[in-house]
Amino acid sequence: MNESLVKSRAFINGEWVKTNKRFRVDDPFSQELIVEVSDCGEEEANQAIEAAHNAFQTWSKTTAQERSDKLLAWYDLIIENLDDLAEILTTEQGKPLKEAKGEIQYGANYIKWFAEEALRIDGDIIPSPDGQKQIHVIKQPVGVVGIITPWNFPQAMIARKVAPALAAGCTVVIKPAAETPLSALAMAELSLQAGIPKGVINLVPTSEASVIGEAITSSSKVRKISFTGSTKVGKILMSQAAENVQRVTMELGGNAPFIVFDDVDIDDAVEGIMASKFRNSGQTCVCANRVFIHETIYQEIVEKLTNKVESMKTGSGLEDDVSITPLINQAGIDKVKRLVQSAKDKGAKVIVGGNVSDKHNQIYEPTILTDVSFDMDIACEEIFGPVLSLIPFSNEESVVEQANATKAGLAAYVYTDDRHRIKRLSEQIESGMIGFNEGIISNHMAPFGGVKESGMGREGSKYGISDYLDIKYLCIK
Ligand SMILES: NC(=O)C1=CN([C@@H]2O[C@H](COP(=O)(O)OP(=O)(O)OC[C@H]3O[C@@H](n4cnc5c(N)ncnc54)[C@H](OP(=O)(O)O)[C@@H]3O)[C@@H](O)[C@H]2O)C=CC1
Ligand SMILES: O=C(O)CCCC(=O)O
């Protein structure tokens, strides 16, 4: 690991700041200490907000070209250091190194994309009703943005929020997840090297998330909150943000249905299920959570999935050819154990796996459950682990109803060869994103986000910058 990128202090106003308290960051595979990191409290959060507020006065007045150039310099440095960043990510988060490299490139793509979008923050001129005035529309950065991110994509979730914020002319205060602050701190170091001015990016690691959350939401200097994480915490932050009427972007939990109709290429559908379910050992908000398979092809798909799942290798993310690695922490393991046990108690059958690995107490074996039904918690909650829940269905109408019978509405997947059905379901399924005949849908050029309790706002794509901009109407006579 490149030690010069392993930072352990808070990053405030372009300085590495030591705090009195520190907290442990452990490797989820070795379960050993990687490093102790500065533990920020209210005081550091307020310093970071002040620094971001001061930096906003100048950063918001830079030209779009200047902001674009700085973001591109940051992108170049991330790509130059991709292997080292990936190793840091795997060490603190656990995912296979190949996936970590994919995440660093994925996150970097958002930075390059928004460096380009910075140049396209266009206004409008609208005809007036009486022809006597000009209606002009300009766009301005919203101000200081508070960013709170989860541990499952410790680099990409930060990049996806910071890049549009900076491109728009905003400055940021980031609170990374306690389990994974190192990827975030390494990104901050590279932003310094890229010449992004002091105070534009501030980073406050903490073991007391709610203290930082309250400092950010109670400050009238912070004009927007962008959060990715659980729906439970999203609701808390939304209610806190109401106090100062801060804008919110919320990327919250999912419960993705994955529907396979009987007119598909079965091997293609099996590949799609595997890719969607087992990315990051099942710890993504867009993972297939409930797999609905048409009853006529159910048995064949169960057999093909069984062959694939049985051959998956478990171990350290740093080993070659490993696909299932430790879950983030003991709470993650406990949640998967509870969901599988209660499904079994209600009649689900374990076809493969179903236990914590006997080689490692934080790895859950890749698992297939059949005979899953809707009264089971596993069909209602985000599993966040490598467990496939399979449910047979008989007709389109009932499966759409079942797919929509959840408060979540983030991602959905449909495998079918029928173009009329694709048209119908694209309107009927209640989710922000649908993969038709595709199990991996995330990329920087597409609008990522949910409906219902999965949140609001869109990240990435040409839409992703608008959450960071205010529209101002000028009536000119
Ligand atoms: N939609 C998604 O992308 C994600 C969904 N989840 C879902 O949530 C479940 C639990 O995961 P968990 O890590 O606990 O997710 P959380 O929502 O608790 O964590 C996400 C982020 O929010 C922070 N946070 C937690 N509480 C507060 C608060 N009161 N104020 C401000 N920030 C706060 C966390 O900090 P800290 O790390 O210090 O606790 C972390 O940075 C998972 O099993 C999964 O179902 C989890 C992660 C991502
Ligand atoms: O799981 C999440 O927290 C969202 C990121 C996943 C992705 O971008 O595909």
Stated plainly, the CATH topology of the largest domain is called Aldehyde Dehydrogenase, Chain A, domain 1
- Helix count, per DSSP? 14
The CATH homologous superfamily of the largest domain: Aldehyde Dehydrogenase, Chain A, domain 1
CATH-level-2 architecture of the largest domain: 3-Layer(aba) Sandwich
- Please state the CA-atom Rg, rounded to the nearest Å: 23 Å
Percent helix: 25-40%
- What compounds sit in this structure? NADPH dihydro-nicotinamide-adenine-dinucleotide phosphate, glutaric acid
Beta strands, count: 20
Oligomer: single chain
Q: Quick one: biggest sheet? A: 7 strands, mixed
Notable characteristics:
single chain; 477 residues; alpha/beta; Aldehyde Dehydrogenase, Chain A, domain 1; Aldehyde Dehydrogenase, Chain A, domain 2; seven-stranded mixed β-sheet; six-stranded mixed β-sheet; 14 helices; globular; binds NADPH dihydro-nicotinamide-adenine-dinucleotide phosphate; binds glutaric acid; Aldehyde_DH_dom; succinate-semialdehyde dehydrogenase (NAD+) activity
